[in-house]
Amino acid sequence: MKKILIAMLMLLGSSSVWAQKFALVDMDYILKNIPAYERASEQLNQVSKKWQAEIDVLTTEAQTQYKNYQSEAVFLSEEQKTKREEAIVAKEKEAAELKKKYFGPEGELFKKRESLMAPIQEEIYNAVKDICDQKGYSLVLDRASDAGIIFASPKIDISNEVLTKLGYN
To answer: 85: which residues sit within 8 A by CB, 6+ positions away?
Structure first.
């Protein structure tokens, strides 16, 4: 009796697994086909380069001050050496703080990326969710970010459907 019950549970359990529908999306492909994403990426790159240039200027100034200090150190009094060293350290600290402000975990670049990308990602998520609701998918995997997928049939890739739902071809 127990064996029959276990066999029935296994049969029911395995049949429910087979009844689930799965799909794949390729987020890289989808994002490359959305012009707003490309514009946002370009805007982030430009801002990032501008901010990095500001940091590079400060770093170069600190390096120049240090080289000048090294070449003139023998002619400077202890008081002058201390002032120069403090100026160099202050410049390096200013560059480090600016780098943290722009590129840190909660920095300006993070906030800008969040403000530009979140609406696009939300729109994609909603399109995927609508397709899942219409077609009864239980799970959608991103083939671009999951290195564990060795092969997947193109039949279950819904990337083009997502793009069509978003109004892109």
So the answer is: 69
Specify if 118 maps to a domain.
yes
C-beta separation of 33 from 123 below 8 A: no
Q: How many Å apart are CA 56 and CA 68, to the nearest integer? A: 18
Give, for all 169 residues of the chain, the pLDDT tens digit. Answer: 444 434 444 544 544 455 688 899 999 999 999 999 999 999 999 999 999 999 999 999 999 999 999 999 999 999 999 999 999 999 999 999 999 999 999 999 999 999 999 999 999 999 999 999 999 999 998 888 766 777 878 888 999 999 999 998 7
In a domain, 70, yes or no: yes
115 is in which domain, residue-wise?
12-166
Please classify residue 118 by burial: count the beta carbons closer than 10 Å to its beta carbon, then call 0-12 exposed, 13-18 middle and 19+ buried.
exposed
Closest CA to 131 of 162, 98, 91: 162
Total number of domains in the chain: 1
51 CB neighbour count, 10 Å cutoff: 19
Identify which of 45, 122, 115, 55 has the alpha carbon closest to the alpha carbon of residue 91.
Answer: 55
Is 1 contained in some domain?
Answer: no
Other C-beta atoms lying within 10 Å of the C-beta of residue 23:
21
Is 2 contained in some domain? no
